[in-house]
Design goal:
homodimer, alpha/beta, Rossmann fold, N-(1-d-carboxylethyl)-l-norvaline Dehydrogenase, domain 2, 2 domains, 6-stranded parallel beta sheet, 3-stranded mixed beta sheet, elongated
Amino acid sequence: MEERIGFIGLGVMGKSMAHLLLAKFGNLNIYSRTKEKALPLIEEGASWYSSAREVAQNSDVVFTIVGYPKDVREVYDNMMNAPLEGKLFVDMTTTEPSLEIEIGAELSKRGASFIDAPVSGGDKGAREGTLSIMCGGDDEAIERAMKYFLVMGKNIRHLGPVGSGQHTKMANQILIAGTMIGLCESLVYARKAGLDINEVMATISKGAAGCWSLDNYGPRIARGDFAPGFMVKHFVKDMKIAIDESRKMGLNLKGLELVEKLYEEMEKEGEGNLGTHALYNAIDRL
Amino acid sequence: MEERIGFIGLGVMGKSMAHLLLAKFGNLNIYSRTKEKALPLIEEGASWYSSAREVAQNSDVVFTIVGYPKDVREVYDNMMNAPLEGKLFVDMTTTEPSLEIEIGAELSKRGASFIDAPVSGGDKGAREGTLSIMCGGDDEAIERAMKYFLVMGKNIRHLGPVGSGQHTKMANQILIAGTMIGLCESLVYARKAGLDINEVMATISKGAAGCWSLDNYGPRIARGDFAPGFMVKHFVKDMKIAIDESRKMGLNLKGLELVEKLYEEMEKEGEGNLGTHALYNAIDRL
């Protein structure tokens, strides 16, 4: 018997992921804080419910991808009172590893399973079903979720118990924080030194300085295009989580803390909706 | 008529570059602070001189690749008193852009030409003649040097007037500084979170966190191999130059300054001869 699928959170990422699931499996129970965002999916045949709880009640497997940790908590608090025995929940939000562990334990008490499965690959990956999916949970749960993951993503990895998906995503964001400050400082320096940024990029991009950020954001910086690939405010959220977690582990990640502070200042300057590569301008202002 | 070629500085990089030039052009006048380093080249047919000045006197084109800015200054001070009219000097050391501009001006007064041409690609690139060569100088000088550059390198770029090669190399090192702290903090975090570092790398290396440093140093970090690809002490030298230059331009590169400080502390701990990826251990200690 086919499982009934629920999907909660229809933002830029969620709406594309939900669309792919609906197109493949023919049924989808949806809820989003803003109903407007659900209209295209309802037209495609999805069933709208007016709360996360009702989605949980009427589904066997529920995917969530919302915004901040408080949103994750709210959605799961709301669902906890539904009958959950035998159901599987998958949170694809990038959020606190410790929150996921807590949710996993709560669900387990109610006879339900849980996977934390944050993604990378951006809106393009979500549209094309080519996301990287970083999973934490037990083998059985991951096996059960795999046919859905395969619709949404390509590189699907099981990294360990619940929380491991988020920790892996944090490791990813920490590395990006470093490459972004390196990239933006490098190009500000090059421009101030009177060099042609495009020539510099062509010179250094194939060597030891090469990185995805240079290949993808370098040309945008060179032409002054600071529209978001990934928004400053979302990166700040992720880095704050990573900093909290790293401190809990007794780590002192000075690079990450510096980069987070610079991006937080950008947010305060009203630049939260710009792309993360707008750090170039922030460094130029220092 | 063939030009007589001089080569000064036979360290890890210089000895391989000199070897390629000698093999291709059949003559090479050499000098190095430590004569021992010259013995294999002398056996191959190179002519040893006991000072930089004598090499300059007996050569038409002179390549230099030494250590610190003070070494560059010493070598060029020594050569300035030789008859230099019509000669070409190429400094391939990574050093201060402003020092190169000064040397270029001094040589120009004596009717000689100058190119600053630092390289990247490491000892492997030097051995195989596949270095990236970042050139600053006038068109005529670069054209004259090109047949020699083509023996030593692959990606040869003319970035602007004298000093532009060094500035480009600094932009390269600034970006590497960012990727190195991002990489090392990311992997320290991942390990402390209980993840398998190799699994994490396989998960994140193809996405937005992807970089040369991850591909090349990640596996070495995972197996605890901190032998140098590039030594901490050399990276400190480069970053200090970049910081000095950036301050002269009125820039405040906080990321670069933080990374330099961390590496300088490693040097003080006696880790100057380790590879730059040993930053992983330094971060773990913080």
